[in-house]
Amino acid sequence: MSRTNDPNLKSWVEVPPGSDFPIQNLPFGIFKTPGLTPRLCTAIGDYVADLQVLAEHGFFDDLGIDPRVFARPFLNDFIALGKAKTGAVRSRLSEILDDNLEDWDASQLADYFLHRQSEVQMLLPVRVGDYTDFYSSREHATNVGTMFRSKENALMPNWLHLPVGYHGRASSIIVSGTPVRRPKGQQMPDGAEKPVFGPSRLLDFELEMAFVIGRETALGQSVDIADAEDYIFGLCLFNDWSARDIQKWEYVPLGPFLGKSFASTISPWIVTLDALEPFRTEGPKQDPNPLPYLQTKGPGSFDIQLEVEIRPEAGEGKVVCQSNFKHLYWSMAQQLAHHTVNGCNIRVGDMMASGTISGPTPDSYGSMLELSWRGTTPIAMPDGSERRFLLDGDTAILRGWCEKEGLRVGFGEASGKVLPAE
């Protein structure tokens, strides 16, 4: 077990009960303040720790890392150092923040490198070069296929043989807290004879997670599934906002386009695979057995509890979905192996999203399309209103965390408020 996974570790920084950010987590992100330029940080309790200041005071000198990497506005250059270096930084942070270690006593510098999370601005953590969205939840694919085709023909013939995916728009990936403008586009209303143009009326969230690529490959190179996790730096929450009416009209024959590309919201923290290791678990049994290049050994998923809250502009919010990352039929390793099997090259900072993560019960469906079953069963809100899809002023808040034997490792939130169409 890695030292950083020791459940007995405690930090001299106060970590409130139920915090997503104990000393066992130490995710990476980018922050700024009115007086500080964007730079690397980690989270501990209710604070962010400024890695640039720690580097300036010599805490990473012996690790052989250019200290300027901690002053970058994105994590890409840091990630590109490789897992040996980034893991060493995370291990050093664990020592710096450990209540029982004095070799790296930084408590006297707390006022210089610790900032309350409530007083900083978290930024997009990664410069995303390319973004791929998968479709890897069997429950979600079955629900959608049942709605638009039939229960008997819910899954397309290829779905159980490969991780279905499409290339999305990286430029519109935004960090938690950024408002989302209701998109406009063409729609074909039920019973209409010709399409209309206007704001989407069926705006939806999609509960997803995404992983960040940590190593590049050359064009023509494939990633062997046994090595796939070596290319994954970490995970974040991902809300793949969807305009269902725009998507329905445009997606045949080539798939999603304007109904997806207007915004995707991610959480500001990238949680490393090492921090998630204690929560590793099996995914669903796959039948039929995948082709050899997609066959895995050992548990390839993680027990990550997920939820979505809808919060009206005025009034009490409601958790409308509770799901789990382990429900995904196709694992991250399988997604990456399939993505590169044709020789497609990947680059540091590329992002690959899971697709909507729906569970087996109606309260675990990961989109309003499913939760309201295409708008036929509206969700009652605490203020007496109903939701079939998202309204202007609503905020969709995704949360995710792992919890086991008193240890909690979380991702924070991925939130976005819906603004009216312009």
CATH C-level name of the largest domain: Alpha Beta
Portion of residues in beta strands equals 25-35%
Mean pLDDT: 96
Biggest sheet layout? 8 strands, mixed
Assign the structural class, choosing from mainly alpha, mainly beta, alpha/beta, alpha+beta, or little secondary structure.
alpha+beta
The overall number of domains is 2
Outline type: globular
Q: Into which percent range does the helicity of residues fall?
A: 10-25%
The CATH homologous superfamily of the largest domain is called Fumarylacetoacetase-like, C-terminal domain
Radius of gyration, in Å, reads 22 Å
Give the N-to-C terminal Cα separation: 53 Å
Total count of helical runs of at least 4 residues: 10
Low-confidence stretches: none
* CATH topology category name of the largest domain: Fumarylacetoacetate hydrolase, domain 2
Strand tally is: 26
CATH architecture of the largest domain: Alpha-Beta Complex
